[in-house]
Automatic annotation (TrEMBL):
InterPro entries per record: RWD_dom, UBQ-conjugating_enzyme/RWD
Lineage of producing organism: Eukaryota, Metamonada, Diplomonadida, Hexamitidae, Hexamitinae
Coiled-coil regions, chain positions: none
Organism annotation: Hexamita inflata
Protein name listed in UniProt: RWD domain-containing protein
Domain spans labelled RWD: 7-107
Position of the signal peptide: none
Superkingdom of the organism of origin: Eukaryota
Alphabetical list of PROSITE patterns matching this protein: RWD
């Protein structure tokens, strides 16, 4: 393990103290909480002998909350970014990990979400074409509704008061007064 690798290992232990685990001299794992995806990414990394000028020997991501295709897209994007970050003098793991929440990194993922919304909109348009936007039966108008409502109340035996008569209702006798427990007890005893 070279000096750059040792320094980076100590730095990553300090950044991720709760989740960092060193599995061997060159292999370690930690969890990165992503703000954008609102889930945890578990990284398992193995240094290659020539790191940081060579790619990492092992670079695995686990994100159980993400859909497999989205997780694979993130992994592919990180792998291509890793090739751009290779530098003989500078460790790049944290920069690579943090790019998950970077705006430039998310553009492709957002574009895929827009494609999914487009497909859903197209499916909705097909359903409207099939139904032509019409439901079976008579169209609903005020006259049809009032006629139906009158028939419905007549069949069910519902008696409604006109709005002008609402002020004449004595709610204590007609609607049943609400009594406290003591008033109810006293009223029952008075009836006996």
């Amino acid at each position: 393990m070279n000096d750059i690798q040792q320094c980076e290992l100590i730095t990553l232990q300090a950044i991720f103290p709760e989740t960092f685990q060193q599995l061997s001299d060159t292999q370690f794992t930690f969890i990165f909480p992503s703000q954008y995806y609102k889930c945890d990414f578990k990284f398992t990394i193995t240094y290659s002998p020539g790191y940081p000028m060579q790619q990492l020997a092992q670079f695995d991501i686990e994100a159980p909350q993400l859909h497999d295709t989205l997780a694979q897209t993130v992994f592919n994007k990180l792998t291509s970014l890793q090739q751009q970050l290779m530098n003989p003098d500078e460790a790049y793991i944290f920069q690579l990990i943090q790019s998950i929440d970077d705006d430039q990194f998310r553009v492709e993922i957002i574009f895929q979400d827009q494609k999914i919304e487009q497909i859903e909109d197209d499916e909705d348009a097909v359903l409207v074409k099939i139904n032509h936007g019409e439901l079976p039966g008579k169209p609903v108008t005020d006259e049809n509704y009032h006629k139906w409502f009158a028939d419905f109340t007549k069949k069910k035996g519902i008696k409604l008061l006109e709005e002008e008569d609402w002020s004449k209702i004595d709610y204590n006798t007609e609607m049943g007064a609400t009594f406290t427990g003591y008033e109810y007890f006293k009223r029952k005893n008075d009836e006996k």
